Structures are given as structure tokens and as C-alpha cells.
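Backbone-to-sequence.
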């Protein structure tokens, strides 16, 4: 019996010739039926992203995306030292949707479309009351009450967001499982 193959789910910019750089193939076997071991996560995007805060433009964060065969991509949203606008924490339900729409639109119909991580580097002073310690970086996995996009008025502008967020602090073992190297966020 031959295994059913599906077309590669990654966007065309991940292709080199006929093969996908992430899948390494022209397609992939249905989930749960991989004849090969899963690949280590690969960083497919690393850039600064401007965003609108609660009331005005001018927010900035770092976006990193890690992809591996057989699981949702991992989106890391990092609070930057120079951000003087609304924090990543305060905008997470909006930022998650905006980043997924911009970089992973083929995943918007999936539940979950991605694993979302909020990252505060060690040098960043804490901006929230969620147990952040000065001089100590941390990473939280963010989940949403619903992944169904909802339009709301925020600061006089219609914005799209996911449901109410909740955070769970991740340790080095969980980070290694998601990113391959827990020190990947230290650069």
C-alpha cells in the first residue's frame, strides 16, 4: 500500500528548484505517517516588525519563525529595548494575528495556526506584573481562548485579534523541544 502524498504546505519562497527547503521533498506524507524522522526546527524568518500600539503607530518587536515537518510553526515575538509604545504583552492577540496573516497566511485556517511564544530578553526591564524579574529573560507560550479572528475597535481603528490570551512560562527543556536549541533566543 502506498502512502498518500499531499502538496508541500510551505510558501513558494521556501522552494529551491522543485524541492522545498523545509520539507526536503516535493510533498509530504500525511501527518502521523512520516517514514523519516522529523527535522530539527529551522529558522525561516528573523526580522524587526513595526506595529500599531493601542493608540498610535510606532511599536516595534522582533519576529522569528521556526518551522519543522509535522507540527505547527513556532512564532517568537520578542519585546525590544527600543520599543516605547505598547508592549508585546499588551498587543499579543493583535500581533499574533498580524504576524500570521503576513508571514504564514496558508496556516490561518489551521487550529492552532502556530505555536506563539512571547520573549523578553534578559536586558529588558519588566513591563508587566506577570512575575518578570529584572535582568532575567523569560519565554511564555501564549494560547488564545479562540483562534477565530475577531474585529474590534481599538484606538479608533478597526483591528483584528484572536481570543483572550493566556500565558505559560517555558523552561529550557520545552524551548529545546520547540526551537532545537534553547540558546537560540540569546542572539
Amino acid at each position: 500500500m502506498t502512502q498518500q502524498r499531499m502538496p508541500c504546505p510551505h510558501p513558494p519562497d521556501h522552494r529551491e528548484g522543485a524541492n522545498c527547503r523545509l520539507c526536503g521533498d516535493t510533498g509530504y506524507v500525511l501527518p502521523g505517517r512520516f517514514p523519516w524522522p522529523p527535522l530539527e526546527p529551522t529558522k525561516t524568518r528573523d526580522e524587526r516588525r513595526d506595529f500599531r500600539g493601542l493608540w498610535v503607530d510606532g511599536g516595534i518587536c522582533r519576529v522569528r519563525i521556526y518551522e519543522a515537518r509535522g507540527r505547527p510553526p513556532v512564532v517568537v515575538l520578542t519585546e525590544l529595548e527600543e520599543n516605547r509604545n505598547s508592549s508585546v504583552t499588551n498587543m499579543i492577540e493583535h500581533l499574533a494575528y498580524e504576524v500570521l496573516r503576513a508571514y504564514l497566511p496558508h496556516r490561518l485556517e489551521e487550529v492552532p495556526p502556530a505555536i506563539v511564544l512571547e520573549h523578553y530578553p534578559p536586558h529588558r526591564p519588566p513591563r508587566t506584573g506577570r512575575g518578570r524579574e529584572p535582568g532575567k529573560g523569560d519565554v511564555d507560550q501564549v494560547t488564545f481562548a479562540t483562534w477565530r479572528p475577531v474585529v474590534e475597535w481599538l484606538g479608533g481603528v478597526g483591528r483584528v485579534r484572536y481570543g483572550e490570551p493566556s500565558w505559560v512560562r517555558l523552561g529550557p527543556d520545552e524551548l529545546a523541544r520547540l526551537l532545537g536549541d534553547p540558546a537560540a533566543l540569546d542572539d
